[in-house]
Amino acid sequence: MRMYDIIQKKRDRKELSEAEISYFIEGYTSGEIPDYQASALLMAIYINKMSRKETEHLTKAMLESGDTVDLSGVNGRKVDKHSTGGVGDKTTLILGPMVAACGLPFSKMSGRGLGHTGGTLDKLDSIEGFRTQLTEEEFLAIINKTKLCICSQSGNIAPADKKIYALRDVTATVDNISLIAASVMSKKLSLKSDAIVIDVKVGSGAFMKNLDDAYELSNEMVRIGQSFDRETVCYLTDMDQPLGNTVGNALEVAESVETLKNNGPKDLTELCLVLGEELLLLGNAAKTKEEARAKLLDTLESGAAYRKFLEMVESQGGNIEQIEDISKLPKAKHVLEVRSDAFGHVEAIEAEEVGKTALMVGAGRETKESEIDLSAGVVISKKIGDAVAAGDIIGYIHCNDEEVGKAACEKLKLAYSISKHFVPKRKLILGKVD
Ligand code: URA
């Protein structure tokens, strides 16, 4: 077999066989196939698309490129949750403790952020001493004792995806449905959970910019999950504005703590309740949606979810004083106000631009090697549908370099569109595929 022939076949819109896809994945992962040939094939896939069969073969080959994580040592039914990536998405930090406080084990292997979307592990780095790199023994001991553990991917999970994702990132081939579906599912299937809930973000801050594409991606992932005998459910949720009010690592941990105490923003709380309902149903921890919601709400109202978060921080070596008093989390030197020049109602907030504003003040990574400023970020004070008077504060920039912060204030202002007319609030849950 020759890589040249595989590229030519896809260029000419022909379907690749399982053997050809495996040849590419094995050769690229081992370093035998160079980046320039892999890039050419990715671009041919991007332009000519893949059939369902090809996408399934690609997922299987990427999954088999690495190890699988055996969860049989975790007591009870195992459920997993994934988000395709959004701005201000701190759902895992809240949903995990809520679900675990309902008695269902929640073990999550998370990643770091790249570009304008943040990663859960970076947020947890805001807590002094918090360890995300655990041995398998530590992971099993923690999850079986507290029912909650958020850690980094262990060992060698889907190394083909790691390499291909990095190449897609620099060759403008990220936002292709087959490539995203295979990337997400190869990682999810590596973890031997019983069921998977995926939050597919849709809108200006997400890879999927419109609902049709998000449905296509969801159908693809649900079908792949089923073909591997894994119950998979996708929720399509709004990412046309940031989730909650904060974007930036320590700021998002503080907002998560407030949400766990039932003082969080409505959209963030509601999303955690909806995803939590599904997790409890799939995990046999509730019989109906109503029962699941009542249990989850109780974890917020009784403080059980907050206490579960404290337990997790303690068991993973973190400083709980910073959670008991969130003013002890990393703090930026400057907090700059952003005021509106216009009046009316907020019509749109370009979520991607808000993410890039946070990136500008150091809250994210431009490249894999970049250092993150844990204290930096953006606070949104007005969301879509809110009334605004000229001169009102629409947000804040938390920064350590005042000059960069001032430029970020201008950038945040540009992310907002204000209409003279009434604008309704946005719907959060846009669809479901199962
Ligand atoms: N998230 C992933 O894990 N992979 C993609 O390709 C896109 C989002």
TrEMBL record:
Identify the species of origin.
Answer: Andreesenia angusta
Under catalytic activity, the entry for this protein gives: 2'-deoxyuridine + phosphate = 2-deoxy-alpha-D-ribose 1-phosphate + uracil; thymidine + phosphate = 2-deoxy-alpha-D-ribose 1-phosphate + thymine; uridine + phosphate = alpha-D-ribose 1-phosphate + uracil
Taken from the UniProt entry, a GO cellular component term is: cytosol
The record's listing under PROSITE patterns reads:
THYMID_PHOSPHORYLASE
What family is it from?
Answer: Belongs to the thymidine/pyrimidine-nucleoside phosphorylase family.
Q: Which GO terms describe its biological process?
A: pyrimidine nucleobase metabolic process; pyrimidine nucleoside metabolic process
GO MF terms here are: 1,4-alpha-oligoglucan phosphorylase activity; deoxyuridine phosphorylase activity; thymidine phosphorylase activity; uridine phosphorylase activity
What keywords are annotated for this sequence in UniProt?
Glycosyltransferase, Transferase
Gene3D superfamilies referenced in this protein's UniProt entry, alphabetically: Nucleoside phosphorylase/phosphoribosyltransferase catalytic domain, Pyrimidine nucleoside phosphorylase-like, C-terminal domain, Transferase, Pyrimidine Nucleoside Phosphorylase, Chain C
| SUPFAM superfamilies in alphabetical order | Nucleoside phosphorylase/phosphoribosyltransferase catalytic domain (SSF52418), Nucleoside phosphorylase/phosphoribosyltransferase N-terminal domain (SSF47648), Pyrimidine nucleoside phosphorylase C-terminal domain (SSF54680)
Subunit structure, interactors included? Homodimer.
EC number from the UniProt entry: 2.4.2.2
Domain named Pyrimidine nucleoside phosphorylase C-terminal is located at 345-419
Q: What does this protein do?
A: Catalyzes phosphorolysis of the pyrimidine nucleosides uridine, thymidine and 2'-deoxyuridine with the formation of the corresponding pyrimidine base and ribose-1-phosphate.
Q: Which InterPro entries match?
A: Glycosyl_Trfase_fam3, Glycosyl_Trfase_fam3_N_dom, Glycosyl_Trfase_fam3_N_dom_sf, Nuc_phospho_transferase, PYNP-like_C_sf, PYNP_C, Pyrmidine_PPas_bac/euk, Pyrmidine_PPase_CS
Name of protein: Pyrimidine-nucleoside phosphorylase
Q: Which Pfam families match?
A: Glycos_trans_3N (PF02885), Glycos_transf_3 (PF00591), PYNP_C (PF07831)
